[in-house]
Amino acid sequence: MDIARYRSGGRGQCVGRPRGPVSAETVKTIAQATLEEPNQKTSEVSTDELRPILADRSAIVFDARPPKEYALSHIPGAVNVSGKSGLPMSQYVPDAGEIIHTLGFSKASSIVLYCSGPFCGRSKRLSEELLAAGFTNLRRYQLGIPVWRALGGATQIELEAVAYVHGMDRSAVFIDARDSEQFQETTLPRAVNVPASGLERGKDVGDVRRAKDDGRLPKEDHNTRVIVFGRDGAQARVVAEAVIGEAFHNVAFYGGTFESLRLRVK
């Protein structure tokens, strides 16, 4: 079994095998890993632990990055608040007061924080401010959104961010997940069609495989930004997850309706 365990001694590098005897309790897959930095005031959750938290909403997940970064790509279900004023961007931290207001002043609420990965300090700074404000049930997903993506997690993009990317990034691929008849009737400029109805279970099958072969999906650069939209967010997410399953990791789906998107993106 592969061991992927971050340790503090080498700026969070992945260590192939822990020192000393290896027991069943110390062996971890990458999805079970946490950063495990010393002397932290809050505990961490792994990717495997975060997934059911999001599914059953057993905690409120806060994205500690700036609102524009959140809008471009965030973990579905995560909440974002504006930043604390008067700080340089290098010391950015969300406004703890807004979080207190969002939670209805319940300082016993279960909270998970994340930001931009192992070297990002935003969720740490926010956790310290929330602890100082009296919150008692805080954890961090310190591996953050880069590892979430790398392990096949879908991300979500907001309406204004779709419009921004469409206007500014000519290399981005926009995928319409609706049926071909709807796509032919109307779609976004530059969009290609990978209908959800053409998906099949597994890798290198169905319309996603054909899209890799015929150029609807980028053939030579799996880092290309891919944005998926559909009839609604559920349809878009299904196709986004299928594309992620083909080793594309810069993929986000739009959670709203096609009609709301069509009115905004020209």
Describe the protein in words.
With 266 residues, the chain is an alpha/beta fold. The protein has two domains: 37-150, Rhodanese-like domain (Oxidized Rhodanese, domain 1); 155-264, Oxidized Rhodanese, domain 1 (3-Layer(aba) Sandwich). 32% of the residues lie in helices and 13% in strands. The protein is built from ten helices and eleven strands. The chain has helices spanning 47-56, 67-72, 96-102, 122-132, 144-150, 159-168, 180-185, 206-214, 233-244, 258-264; strands at 5-6, 14-15, 43-44, 60-63, 111-114, 138-141, 155-157, 173-176, 192-193, 226-229, 251-254. It has a five-stranded parallel sheet with strand order 7-11-10-8-9. Strands 3-6-5-4 form a four-stranded parallel sheet, with helices on both faces. Strand 5 (111-114), helix 4 and strand 6 (138-141) form a beta-alpha-beta unit. The protein is globular. Residues 1-20 have low confidence and may be disordered.
Task: Kindly summarize this structure in a few lines.
This protein is α/β, with parallel strands linked by helices and 266 residues long. The protein has helices at 47-56, 67-72, 96-102, 122-132, 144-150, 159-168, 180-185, 206-214, 233-244, 258-264, and strands spanning 5-6, 14-15, 43-44, 60-63, 111-114, 138-141, 155-157, 173-176, 192-193, 226-229, 251-254. The chain has two domains: 37-150, Oxidized Rhodanese, domain 1 (3-Layer(aba) Sandwich); 155-264, 3-Layer(aba) Sandwich (Oxidized Rhodanese, domain 1).
